[in-house]
Amino acid sequence: MTDADSGKTPRAALADEADERQRGRPFALLLGIAGFTLFALLPGLPDAIDPSGETIVVTREAKLALGLFVLAAVWWVTEAVPVGITAITIAVVQALFQIRDARAAFTDFLDPAVWFIIGAFTIGMAFSSTGLTKRLTYRMLALAGERTSMIYLGTFLMTAGLTLFMAHTAVAAALFPLLTAIHALYGHDGVTRFGKGLFIGMAFTAGAGSIITLFGAARAAVAIGFFRDLAGREISFGELTYYMLPLGVTMVFLLWLYILVVFRPDKPVIFGLRRRARELHKRLGPVSWQEWLVIIVTLIAIAAMSLRSVIPLLGQIDKSAIILAVTVVFFVFRILDLDDLESLPLNIIFLFGGAMSIGFCLWQTGAARWLAIQWLTHLPTSPLLVFVIGLSLFVLLLTNLIMNVAAIAISLPVALAVSGYLGIAPELVLYSTLAVAGMPFLFMVGAAPNAIAYQSRQFSSAEFFRAGIPASILLLAVLALFVWKIWPWMGMPVHLAG
User: Fold this and answer.
1) Which residues pair with 49 in a beta bridge?
2) Using CA atoms, how far apart are residues 65 and 70, in angstroms rounded to an integer?
3) Smallest Cα–Cα separation from 407: which of 443, 438, 365?
């Protein structure tokens, strides 16, 4: 079977794509370096005035941090060097140019959030090594049927549904081997449109589902904490879900349709798949004790992480420690072994270490705050809808390049202050910010599911970026509809009282 778009086999198409990237590599390398050099040589950038009247001065370190931000973005998109090496470059440049202390720049690579990614990968490995992935795959395929469009829908609904109860990182890591098994049953070796759609769609819908409850990601708890301190009101679990559920569900189904159009599978039907899935499931036999151990330990960890927000004792334990305790258990009981430890995807782990490092660099040098104020202070004379969507666009761009928790911490306090002058209700700002922060569709570093999906080698960073542009525009259009009509109809305040 050939790739319908190019008339070439998947392997040939992949080889051509690799050759094209290799030819553009010198230009991409120089473009990133030129971006950094430009900021380094700039004589100065205008000061920013925040809503309280405080002046934000752009220091030498802040200028270099902005230049490093540009270099990382260019290299990550173009894959001028492996994404993990770009991440290491981020720390190296900080140390060489004394943007930040070397200990701080490199220690960010061991941030608890990075260790959480490692724990999520080991859960996926455990599911795969015990056969649980195959068991789940065959069961899902027997239910979804033989149409590839319905297999898309089934996997996307399963992805979004699981994020209601567990972190989207853990969901992506657990489902990754399942999707790999599904693609293997598709009957193609190498890269296919179905494979691209399957993994990119998983990353996109993991984000869409993760905005609905507090369990999907840490960003909501951080944002609600800022909101409580700055707006003086607590947002409950139920209130968050009430407003975010319709938006999340709408995005899941629209993303399914989008993926179905952009990555329409070569084969609309996989004849005999349902029968084969049932036969393969039967061959697995009864659930083994190793599978039961993985299920029980993983569910305990999910419950512990989910209840951190309501049980004070658990709230004192970092979620990374919980998920890494699971890793230790898997190795103690020989579910995983040394080969599994050595097969951890360092390229992706370094990628997230670099994301943490550039995020903290922008934050600590003041560059991120300067960016936020420069962007948002151009919006106070705008109509309500333009202000909210303009804010959302800024958060969307920022959260694609640094961790979304950092993006919220940088932008939300400034946005809440500016919105007060416009008489815009802070709830509208909060929910809009959370929506876009949960769905970074452009870069691998925007969210862990993006990087986990990239591990499939079904798509390049550039392909993900190209697919993410229309998806991001779709997100902003849907959000505009919710801000304009749906959320006010549901009872969300739009303007400040009085």
Assistant:
1) 55
2) 9
3) 438
What is the phi/psi pair of residue 401, to 5°?
-115, -15
Burial of 489 (0-12, 13-18, 19+ CB in 10 A): exposed
Q: Which of 344-348, 371-375, 477-481 has the highest mean pLDDT?
A: 477-481
Helices (H) and strands (E) in the chain, counts: 24, 2
Helix/strand/coil for 154 = helix
Give the contacts of 1 (CB within 8 A, at least 6 positions apart). 9, 187, 188, 266, 267
The contacts of residue 331 (CB under 8 Å, 6+ apart) are: 337, 341
As a residue count, the chain comes to 498
Q: In this structure, what token pair is assigned to residue 296?
A: 């029980």
pLDDT in tens, 316-331: 777 778 889 999 999 9
Contact 252, 203 (CB under 8 A): no
- The identity of residue 347, as a single letter, is N
Token pair 């040589």 is at which residue?
Answer: 41
Question: Residue 277: which residues within 8 A CB-CB, separation 6 or more?
Answer: 137, 138, 139, 141, 142, 185
Closest CA to 413 of 227, 235, 236: 227
The 10s digit of each residue's pLDDT in 16-34 is 555 555 666 888 899 999 9
